[in-house]
Design brief:
11 helices, single chain, alpha/beta, 32% helix, globular, twelve-stranded mixed beta sheet, TIM Barrel
Length: 322
């Protein structure tokens, strides 16, 4: 039974580690999902994971991530099954490359919202960041998501000094003109050489000061447990909100209720700690006590939140679902 006084969980489920992109900050070297099908979490495993979490601790949000989730062939069917659970919020994060064709089917299956990664509006910069992907499919995917009603569509940008930071004003204007919410994410050191990270990192405060010279920004009240700090953009031609996700300069660990299930069956309570619980066997157990053991693992993982100190992702972002 759900404890009524405890905040509900936010679940992030990585449905695959595969991705057709090799973004500099996420997958700087080619990596591919490996292993037999038994080594990859199946749709029924994910559904059971969500059901046990909902019944025992309560679930406020489920977000499907990757890798690139739209690569997974059974994704629409998975969304449809999860949609039958009447979750308060069912969302997905994507690079948008296959979204133009899948936006309407996903909405019809029960997906509520979508986040699209867009790190540049310039095709040359986009190709550099993604290591040769094309920009147009992602832009088409954003338009399709808006048309399908997968809103508010959030456009996520990882800001990298000297590479795409000069585009932040244009990215805000692009998003707000389409009724989307732009969100700027601080670069994390995962998978990067130390020298590259130091050269490319740009704190949210500096970025916000720059945007304040182009837009009238007013801070909104913080939402407990939220990763994004939002600011209202005032003005008839540019009304909306912009978010800043600052895991390095302003960690949002206090009150965190996020749990992550990776594509290879690991349960993570915290990105800042290099430990996890392998629960593939639990998710596939058929005995009477299986759900209770899954619930116990959830409680253990939730107790493994990091303490004080600098936040650093101990594992590649592509393997933990971002």
């Amino acid at each position: 039974m759900t404890t009524p006084t405890a905040p509900r969980l936010t679940l992030r489920i990585s449905v695959t580690e595969r991705c057709q992109m090799h973004c500099l900050y996420c997958r700087p070297r080619p990596t591919f999902e490996s292993g037999a099908p038994s080594d990859v979490v199946q749709a029924k495993d994910m559904v059971r994971f969500v059901e046990v979490a909902r019944q025992t601790m309560g679930v406020a949000k489920v977000r499907l991530t990757g890798g690139e989730p739209l690569i997974r062939r059974d994704l629409v069917a998975l969304v449809a099954t999860l949609g039958q659970l009447a979750l308060p919020d069912l969302a997905l994060t994507t690079n948008g490359q296959r979204l133009a064709a899948l936006a309407r089917p996903l909405r019809a299956a029960g997906l509520h919202r979508i986040n699209v990664s867009l790190d540049s509006l310039d095709r040359h910069t986009f190709a550099r960041l993604t290591q040769e992907a094309e920009l147009a499919p992602t832009l088409d995917g954003i338009e399709a998501a808006c048309a399908a009603g997968l809103g508010p569509v959030r456009i996520n940008t990882v800001v990298m000094r000297g590479i795409n930071d000069h585009e932040v004003e244009a990215l805000v204007a692009f998003a707000l003109a389409r009724g989307c919410e732009p969100r700027f994410i601080e670069l994390m050191p995962s998978g990067l050489a130390t020298a590259d990270y130091r050269r490319w990192f740009m704190p949210s405060a500096e970025l916000r000061e720059r945007l304040a010279r182009a837009f009238d920004l007013t801070p909104e009240a913080p939402v407990p447990g939220a990763s994004s700090r939002r600011w209202r953009v005032n003005g008839a031609a540019s009304a909306g909100t912009v978010g800043f996700i600052s895991p390095r300069s302003q960690p949002f660990c206090a009150g965190c209720r996020r749990l992550r299930l990776t594509a290879d069956g690991r349960l993570l309570g915290c990105l800042g700690r290099n430990d996890y619980i392998r629960i593939m066997g639990l998710l596939r157990a058929t005995d009477a006590g299986g759900d209770e053991r899954i619930a116990a693992a959830l409680h253990v993982a939730l107790g493994r939140k990091r303490g004080a100190g600098a936040f650093a992702v101990a594992m590649p972002m592509s393997s933990v679902g971002g």
